[in-house]
Amino acid sequence: MEKVKGSTESALSPISEKSRLVYLDNIKVALTLLVVAHHAGQAYGPTNDWPILSVERSSILGSFFDVNGAFLMGLFFLISAYFTPASVDRKGIGSFLKGRFLLLGIPFVFMLVVVFGPITYVVDKVDIGFWEYMFFVYIGQGDFEVGHLWFIALLLVFSVCYSIARFVSPLVNVRIKPIISLPGHFSLLIFSIILAFLNFIIRIWFPVGVWVDIFPFMPLEIGRFPQYACFFVIGIIAYRYNWLNTIPTMTGVIWFIIGVMAGIIHYTNTSLNLIPSVIIWPLLEAFIGVGLMTGLLVIGRDFWNKRGRLMTWLADNAFTVYLIHIFMVYLFQVTMEEIAMGPFLKFVIVSITGAILSFVISHFIRKMPLVNKIL
């Protein structure tokens, strides 16, 4: 992707007013804030794989994490995929990949090596010299700390896969034609059931929470991969067949209600232990994901397709916030540990303060020479 003000080619980069798809920009901001909140809650929910863990935990945050996981990153993938065919159409495969690696790859490598490398050296209390560790262990052995940047790595992999498909198959390069019918209730129902089945099958071997190093630079939660891959493919199809502009409002509203109701059922079930989650959760998760995905896109299109200066500023900074927010979240989580307060209230405070500080710092980072050419 070349860097242009208002580029629409990434799920995390600003979207042009001229595209008349401002609502996708607004949704992107909301998703970014939800990512901050998701990580803010890790210290206070029923998790044990976070660097900072509060003594007191809030059990309700477990369901919050589940519902987020059902649609949050999948919708990011869908939005990014939606603009991918147009970018390849306009630039060609080579220029498209070059742009992707410049705009996504450079920040990824910088964070991976320059930021996470030294932090890992200090936190792990490595007993060899810093440069020896960086060159011969961290980089030499591919012992990377990737953290939340897995999304960028997988997005790059998806972009490469799509480019290969475009190169080897002329069918993928077909312009918009009414070949695939507009998704209705039945199609969305079938898609939800298929996604639930895929989730159930893959989690026999890879339960949610189990991460596998696909590449040294890309850990992946395999149990959620069907969602990510399916939503990315849906994003490409949605562009080719103009789905986002043509799905009826009522269809979106009904499926949004379905998604919300599935979420409520999950919250209720986990609170009362009515049905074992291993049985019902894959189905609920699919309906939450498909329902909220469809609903947010359609409702956003019809009722949130405008923005003022604040939303424009938030959208311009969203990608940088995604990169750096984790450090602000850590800072406030450590600070809050010395304060006598309930875990849920701490979660709310860390979410809000972490998001505000992340956007403010992003604003100044993006004003730095050279950085403003990429971020």
Q: Mean pLDDT, rounded to whole units?
A: 90
Relative helix content:
55-70%
Number of helices: 12
Q: What class, by secondary structure content?
A: mainly alpha
Describe the strand arrangement of the main beta sheet, using strand numbers.
Answer: 1-2
> Sheet bearing the most strands, described?
2 strands, antiparallel
Task: Provide tags for this entry.
375 residues, mainly alpha, 67% helix, 2% strand, globular, disordered N terminus
In short:
With 375 residues, this protein is mostly helical.
Structural description of this entry:
- This protein is mainly alpha-helical.
- It has twelve helices and two strands.
- It has helices at 22-41, 60-91, 93-123, 130-138, 150-168, 185-202, 225-240, 243-246, 249-272, 277-303, 309-336, 343-365, and strands at 211-215, 218-221.
- It has a two-stranded antiparallel sheet with strand order 1-2.
- It is globular, with a radius of gyration of 21 Å.
- The relative contact order is 0.15.
Sequence-ordered SSE layout with sheet pairings:
Elements: H1 22-41, H2 60-91, H3 93-123, H4 130-138, H5 150-168, H6 185-202, E1 211-215, E2 218-221, H7 225-240, H8 243-246, H9 249-272, H10 277-303, H11 309-336, H12 343-365
